[in-house]
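Technical note accompanying the year-one report. For the benefit of new consortium partners, we illustrate the data format agreed upon in the data management plan: each record pairs a sequence with a structure-token string. No post-processing was applied to the example shown here.
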Amino acid sequence: MPSRSVPLVLAGALLALAGCGKSSGTCTPLVPTDSTYPPSLADWCQVALTQGDVAPLSSDVVPYTLTTPLFSDGAIKRRTVRVPPGTAAVYDPTAPLGFPDGTVLTKSFGFRADARDTTLPIHWVETRVEWKAQGAWNFMAYRWNDAGTEATPEPGGEVLDFSYIDVDGVNQSAHYLVPSELQCQQCHAENGPVAPIGPKARWLNTDFAYADGTENQLARWTKLGILTGAPADPSSAPQLPAAADPDAGTVDQRARAYLEANCAFCHSPQGNARISGLYLAASVPESVQLGICKRPVAAGVGAGGRPYDVFPAQPDQSIIPYRMSSTTPAVAMPQIGRSIVDMHGVALVTEWITGLPGTCD
């Protein structure tokens, strides 16, 4: 897997619809019927760079967000969904929504040279496309060129080395991963066959600032006819808080949301880390399954000499924040998709463990 340095600059991307080469009036979104993918992101006609940001190319390509996204080296993300006309996703209160064949999801990743300055242009690195055809989900990462004028497939993945200043003013040197097809499967095979992770009701149940006003996403999707079966009142649907927002919930609620978003796709009874017996979904009760007073299945450098996954009131003796604080491949968790430490996530989980009552024998 190649690695190369990338400048955080933006050139042609400031041109309207750069990277698509088609106007929204002539660009018809692709409805996939099999696992094949086109040679350019432009051929999907889902999104393009418009005035320096990623924007939908059709009125039925709907932008959305999640209350707590996965930390990906501090990347800015833009998400969209499109289901074929006349079809709809089926609401599920616990699992990912049941999307019909022909659904296309996109997730674009970008960085500002200085994350503190929101007036700076965003350098878009990749757009990942997920599409459902013949009952199966498929994945491909499209790598944007440095000028922001075209994005092409990277089936073998790539590692990009660059530096930027984060929201705390710290210089970060990232080894950013554009995932290969195999790496996509590594995380997205949460419950058997590969599938989207993020579009669950509890992550979607939040407001979004649409062009015509702010509205709850579940309510908007229902109104658009692309979601069926959702409660008429979104307050009746499950919701996990925004982990980064101190006003969104308690420390416990926000830390549990963070752990689910960043860890539970592996740490679940069906995930790749199921043998560990450590399950980090927000619905898991505070017990040994959550890591409280749980000894690691395999000791070693990953445990850092700490006795338990979670040692109540003693984060310095807990394995989870130790692994979150590391970038050493044999120690760091998650194992892929992160090359720098999310200091805010570490601080939140540390605060949660500090406030846990009890002790371990």
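Partners are asked to follow this layout when depositing records. DSSP finds six helices and 15 strands in the chain.
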